[in-house]
Amino acid sequence: MIFDFDKIKFGKRIKELRVAQGLSQDDLCNKVEGLEPSYLSKIETGKYAPALPTFFKIINALETNPDNFFDYKHLVTEKELDSALLHEYKELPLKKKRILYRYIQILKEYN
């Protein structure tokens, strides 16, 4: 079973993978024997964590593996990302800061 402090991230990750594949909760439950939509909803909201056999059934149905599933890098908050970017920016030499500034301007043009 997953520790309490991971349940919310765990549930968000299941939902993220499910939605990315265009699956509803019912669709995923149809692919996982014994998984009920009400239980899946509680997993996705962080109220419950599935037993290990159920976890493996879910990730198999989502066509992923444990290494990919537990990659939480994409869950960084905007504030954390801003802080990390600012830190990295401050470490750059002036020439690279100018290049980065131009890239940002280009990105903004195509937004």
Describe the structure.
By secondary structure, the protein is mainly alpha-helical. The protein has two domains: 4-73, 434 Repressor (Amino-terminal Domain) (Orthogonal Bundle), CATH 1.10.260; 76-109. The chain is 66% helix and 0% strand. It is built from seven helices and no strands. It has helices at 7-20, 25-31, 37-44, 52-61, 66-69, 78-91, 94-109.
Alpha-beta content class: mainly alpha
What fold name stands as the CATH topology of the largest domain? 434 Repressor (Amino-terminal Domain)
H and E string: HHHHHHH
Q: Please name the CATH architecture of the largest domain.
A: Orthogonal Bundle
Give start-end ranges of low-pLDDT stretches: none
- Number of E-type strands: 0
Count of domain modules: 2
CATH evolutionary superfamily of the largest domain: lambda repressor-like DNA-binding domains
Rg over alpha carbons: 19 Å
Question: Key terms for this structure?
Answer:
0% strand, 66% helix, 7 helices, elongated, mainly alpha, 2 domains, 434 Repressor (Amino-terminal Domain), single chain, 111 residues
Summarize the structure.
The protein is an all-alpha fold and 111 residues long.
Topology:
Elements (H helix, E strand, L loop, with lengths): L6 H14 L4 H7 L5 H8 L7 H10 L4 H4 L8 H14 L2 H16 L2
